């Protein structure tokens, strides 16, 4: 196995999963939930995200093409719009997730923590398309490592958050991360348009 290629795939997926964004999400939940409850949310959401992403990695083209009759460029453009909107909201509000105090844990685990915050549109598109470049097994390994790193960071989000707050870095990093998320969304839209043009006019 090409180690350099493997870590390139892992870093690509890690950038799309965006663990830093998840730190801000978990920190924003601290007022409503205890630490054990937050860890339960992180653990279950991570397991759910692994299942969703492995399903799309192994059967993504079949799911999109045969079940929903979708082209990959349509999925890229739509997911790019969603991601761009999430980044724009983060820029405006300075937060990626706002909740009602009565929101139950079960309502958070699948949506929005697992989907789309961990298994987001950019990550789903990546796992569908990356096996053609990196190979299936290398992509699976890179995905599992990226998700493990994300899980460790989310599990320690409270400590990371306290450090960032002491350094007065929390809000600037939220805005910077939101800008990067919006930029990734825009790039996905442009990639989808490019794929569409190449498909229609080869």
From TrEMBL:
Signal peptide: none
Subcellular location(s) of the protein: Cell membrane
Transmembrane segments: 6-27, 47-68, 74-96, 108-128, 134-153, 173-193
InterPro entries membership: Multi_antbiot-R_MarC
Pfam family, one: MarC
Protein family: Belongs to the UPF0056 (MarC) family.
Membrane topology label: Multi-pass membrane protein
Keywords associated with the record: Cell membrane, Membrane, Transmembrane, Transmembrane helix
Keyword Transmembrane helix: yes
One GO CC term on file: plasma membrane
Entry protein name: UPF0056 membrane protein
Native source species: Candidatus Tidjanibacter faecipullorum
């Amino acid at each position: 196995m090409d180690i350099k290629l493997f870590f390139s795939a892992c870093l690509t997926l890690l950038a799309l999963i965006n663990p830093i964004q998840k730190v801000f999400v978990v920190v924003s939940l601290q007022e409503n939930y205890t630490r054990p409850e937050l860890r339960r949310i992180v653990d279950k959401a991570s397991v759910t995200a692994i299942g969703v992403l492995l399903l799309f990695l192994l059967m993504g083209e079949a799911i999109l093409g045969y079940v929903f009759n979708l082209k990959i460029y349509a999925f890229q453009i739509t997911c790019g719009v969603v991601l761009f909107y999430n980044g724009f909201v983060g820029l405006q509000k300075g937060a990626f997730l706002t909740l009602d105090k009565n929101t139950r844990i079960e309502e958070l685990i699948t949506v929005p923590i697992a989907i789309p915050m961990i298994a987001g549109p950019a990550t789903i598109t990546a796992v569908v398309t990356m096996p053609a470049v990196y190979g299936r097994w290398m992509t699976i390994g890179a995905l599992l490592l990226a998700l493990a790193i994300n899980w460790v960071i989310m599990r320690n989000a409270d400590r990371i958050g306290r450090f960032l707050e002491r350094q007065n870095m929390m809000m600037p990093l939220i805005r910077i991360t939101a800008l990067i998320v919006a930029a990734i969304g825009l790039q996905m839209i442009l990639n989808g348009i490019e794929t569409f043009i190449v498909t229609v006019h080869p």
